[in-house]
Design goal:
This protein is an alpha/beta fold and 309 residues long. It has 2 domains: 3-118, 2-Layer Sandwich (Nucleotidyltransferase, domain 5); 132-289, 2-Layer Sandwich (Nucleotidyltransferase, domain 5), CATH 3.30.420.40. Helices cover 35% and strands 17% of the residues. It is built from 9 helices and 10 strands. Strand 1 and strand 2 form a beta hairpin. Helix 4 packs across helix 9 (296-308). The longest helix is centred in the last third of the chain and has 21 residues, at 216-236. The mean pLDDT is 94. Bound molecules: zinc ion (ZN).
Length: 309
C-alpha cells in the first residue's frame, strides 16, 4: 500500500441486512472521522440517496473522498468482468434483489474508484489491515449472528472463486440425540440452520442472550461450531480463525467461556491428528475474537477503498 493511498480519505459502507454503517476515515480509532448507521429497510433507492447525501456532507467537513469501499451482504457479484459487478444479486430480501450498489452510489456522488466485496470478506480485510490477522496471509474470518458467513485470505489473496465462499451452509454431522430441524430455508440443518442467533432462539424458545450460562443450548452451539471449524482447518489450513458476529458475545455465558468451550471441543474433534502445537497448547491464540470488535466491518470497508486506489 503506497503512502498516498494510506493518506486518502475513504468513504466506507458496511451494507448489512439490518443496517448500513457508513463512515469516513483513513483507518480505525481516531482515523475514523465520522460514522452513522441507517436501517436497511425495504426502499433501496431512498437509502442510497441518504447514504450519498451523508457522504457528500462529510466531504464538506473533512475534505474530498478519494475512493469508496463497500462491504455488502449478499449474494453479490464480485466478478470485475461481469456487467453486474457491484450488484447485490439473488438475496431473499426482495427489495434489494439485483440492486446496483456501486453504480447507484457512483451515480449519486461521482465516478470514484470503488472497492467492493462481501461483508464478511470486508471484515476479514479490516482484521488483516489493523486487527487480529495482521501479518497472516492465510486466515479465516467468520461471522456468526443472524446468519453465518466465512471469508478470509489464502496465500495473501481474498477468497473469491466461482462466487465467494458460503461456509455458513456447510453440511455438518448431527450431534447424537439432536433432532432440531434447523432454520435454513434452503437446507434446514446446515451450519447456519443450526447455529445462528435465530436458530438458537428457535431451539431454546428464547433469545440466546437471555439463556443461563448452563443452558444445554450452549453445549450444542459450541459443539457444532467446533465441527465446522475442524472442517475449515482440514480444508483450508488457516493460520488463525477469527470469530466475529453477535453470537460469540454469548449473553450470560460470556465471550471468554464461549471461546474456551469452542477451543476445547475443536481439540477434541481434531484428536491430535494434525500434530501442530498451534492447534494444541497454542489454541488460545488460534481461535480468537476480532481485535477491531464490531468495527471490523466498517474498517474493512475503508481497507477495501484503499485497495481500490
Ligand atoms: Zn443452509
Amino acid at each position: 500500500m503506497s503512502e498516498s493511498s494510506r493518506d486518502g480519505l475513504i468513504g466506507a459502507i458496511e451494507a448489512g441486512g439490518t443496517k448500513f454503517v457508513c463512515a469516513v476515515g483513513r483507518g480505525p480509532g481516531e482515523k475514523l472521522l465520522a460514522r452513522v448507521s441507517f436501517p436497511t429497510g425495504d426502499d433501496s433507492a431512498s437509502l442510497l440517496d441518504r447514504v450519498a447525501a451523508w457522504l457528500a456532507e462529510q466531504e464538506s467537513r473533512h475534505g474530498r473522498l478519494t475512493a469508496l469501499g463497500i462491504a455488502s451482504f449478499g449474494p453479490v457479484d464480485l466478478d470485475p468482468g461481469s456487467p453486474t459487478w457491484g450488484h447485490i444479486t439473488s438475496t431473499p430480501k426482495i427489495a434489494w434483489q439485483y440492486t446496483d450498489l456501486v453504480g447507484g452510489l457512483r451515480g449519486r456522488l461521482r465516478d470514484l474508484p470503488v472497492g467492493f466485496d462481501t461483508d464478511v470478506n470486508g471484515a476479514a480485510l479490516g482484521e488483516y489491515a489493523w486487527g487480529a490477522a495482521q501479518g497472516l496471509d492465510d486466515f479465516i474470518y467468520l461471522t456468526i449472528g443472524t446468519g453465518i458467513g466465512g471469508g478470509g485470505m489464502v496465500g495473501g489473496r481474498m477468497m473469491h472463486g466461482l462466487l465467494h465462499p458460503e461456509m455458513g451452509h456447510m453440511v455438518l454431522p448431527r450431534v447424537k440425540g439432536d433432532d432440531f430441524p434447523g432454520v435454513c430455508p434452503f437446507h434446514g440443518a446446515c451450519w447456519e440452520g443450526l447455529c445462528t442467533g435465530p436458530a438458537m432462539n428457535a431451539r431454546a424458545g428464547a433469545p440466546a442472550e437471555t439463556l443461563g450460562a448452563d443452558h444445554p443450548v450452549w453445549e450444542l452451539e459450541t459443539q457444532y461450531i467446533a465441527l465446522a471449524l475442524a472442517n475449515i482447518i482440514y480444508n483450508v489450513s488457516p493460520r488463525r480463525i477469527i470469530i466475529g458476529g453477535s453470537v460469540r458475545k454469548a449473553g450470560h455465558l460470556g465471550e471468554e467461556r464461549f471461546f474456551r468451550m469452542v477451543r476445547t471441543k475443536v481439540r477434541e474433534v481434531l484428536n491430535g491428528y494434525l500434530g501442530s502445537p498451534v492447534l494444541d497448547e497454542g489454541i488460545d491464540g488460534y481461535i480468537v475474537p476480532p481485535l477491531l470488535g464490531d468495527d471490523a466491518g466498517v474498517c474493512g470497508a475503508i481497507a477495501l477503498g484503499q485497495r481500490a486506489l
